Amino acid sequence: MKITRCPECGSGSLVEDYDQGEIICQQCGLVINENVLNQGPEWRAFTKEEKEERGRVGIPTSFSIHDKGLSTVIEQVNRDSYGRRLPLDRRLEMLRLRKWQIRTRV
Questions:
Q1: pLDDT in tens for each of the 106 residues of the chain?
Q2: Distance (Å, rounded) from C-alpha 67 to C-alpha 87?
Q3: How far apart are CA 46 and CA 58, in angstroms?
């Protein structure tokens, strides 16, 4: 359902800010929706070949899943982004977060 008017002031001047993921009323400043996803293309194509070979990244979003299929997965690698082993306190924290991630999965 597309929102066309502000529920607070009734103004029709709404701004869709895809960088922040929000729909904002220009009149009163109310943030009407803060979970807006840009449904535009995820690719950049400059040549004819690139336009023909374009493809989407990841699975499509789904309203049948509580987080629309956009969840983050905490792996059991126990390494940081540089490939170094995590210190013990950080590994224990990741273990705790992984456990809660599994428990809260729908």
A1: 677 888 889 898 998 877 777 888 999 988 888 777 666 666 667 788 877 776 655 666 666 666 776 777 788 888 888 889 999 999 999 999 999 888 887 6
A2: 31
A3: 22
Q: Of the candidates 49, 53, 5, which has an alpha carbon nearest to the alpha carbon of residue 30?
A: 5
* Phi/psi of residue 96, nearest 5 degrees: -65, -45
Beta bridge partner(s), residue 17: 22
Task: Give the DSSP per-residue string, 27-69.
Answer: TT--EEES-----S-S----SHHHHHH----SPPP-TTSTTTT
Could you give the CA distance from residue 92 to residue 75 in angstroms, rounded to a whole number? 13
Per-residue tokens: 15: 């701004």
- Which amino acid, 48? K
